[in-house]
Amino acid sequence: MESISSIKDLHKYLELNSNKKITLIPTMGNLHKGHLELIGQAPANTHKIVSIYVNKLQFNNSDDYDSYPRSINLDIEKCKDNNVDMVFMPDDSFLENINEYEDIHLPEFTNHLCGKTRDSHFLGVYKIVRNLFDMIKPNYACFGIKDYQQLLLIKFIASKYFPNLEIIEVDTVRNKEKIALSSRLNKLDKKAILKAANIYICLTSIKQKIIDGKDFNIIRDEEIQNLESKNIKVEYLEHRTNTTLNPVKQDISDTSIFIACFIDNVRLIDNIQI
Ligand code: PAF
Q1: Cα 152 to averaged position of ligand 1 atoms, centre (Å)
Q2: 176 found inside a domain
Q3: Do 27 and 163 share a domain, yes or no?
Q4: What's the pLDDT at 61?
């Protein structure tokens, strides 16, 4: 497996491997089983490139950026063990060399859910991912359904600028307590992790109640109270359509419940399809 950190070396490498189909797995490192599942979903016989870059542009809080868990040596070992062909891990100067793009129009759905509170988060994701797609020109790229709003944005970028790129949607990986795996879980102690198990319990309970015909607005207040009684601070808990992320009116098909919440100041997100 090769590790590359400069854009110049990346171009050289891509030229040498220009006869291969590429699957790109963009990450911010601190790889866990969720990332390994993304790697595992790369189509057979494609060249697997994992990018590892903690993207400052998508953090709206510098403490959050500084304290984001980093474990580059372990990450490289995990990539080797999972048959990755190349790890692209640009250094901090990467941002100075990326294209800023003059034609950025973020779709309306980026203003909802995480876009409401995380100022310019999706603009930061957009810039990095579009640059990675432009540089690497992958045939496939894998993204998780856990970051559903991000996945919609990536599909938007792909459909607008990269007609030959197929986005592979990968199911959320959960631990035995059904907690959606996230690098941020590393910031929680054991007690807080146990609390996090309530997130999925809440989502499945709401799902069942919606299927039973209950009114979401009433359920929401009860569930928020329940979570807050366990010291889980809810940022949003919403029932939205899967394509526009607008609130659901009547038809519950093709909709999901989305949550963002804080446990001990660590922000976690999750979702469940109805
Ligand atoms: O999902 C992530 O880890 C990041 O948002 C991504 C897609 C690698 C862009 O920095």
Answers
A1: 13
A2: no
A3: yes
A4: 87
Q: In this structure, are residues 72 and 29 in contact, taking their beta carbons and an 8 Å threshold?
A: yes
Residue type (1 letter), 246: N
Contact 172, 145 (CB under 8 A): yes
Q: In ligand 1, which atom is closest to the CA atom of 51?
A: 8
| Phi and psi at residue 103, to the nearest 5° | -110, 35
Detail the DSSP E strand segments found in 124-249.
140-144, 166-170, 233-241
CA distance 34 to 173: 5
Q: Which two tokens stand for residue 137?
A: 């020109």
Ligand 1 near 129 CB (within 6 A) = yes
- Tokens matching residue 129: 């991912």
Index of the ligand 1 atom closest to the CA of residue 183 = 3
Q: Is the CB of 50 under 6 A from ligand 1?
A: no
Decide whether any atom of ligand 1 lies within 6 Å of the 128 Cβ: yes
Q: Both 12 and 89 in a single domain?
A: yes
Residue minimizing CA distance to atom 6 of ligand 1? 27
What residue numbers bound the domain in which 226 lies? 183-268
Q: What is the largest CA-CA distance in the chain?
A: 59
pTM value is 0.97
Q: Tell me the per-residue pLDDT of 170-181, one tens digit each, with 9 for 90 and over.
A: 999 999 999 999
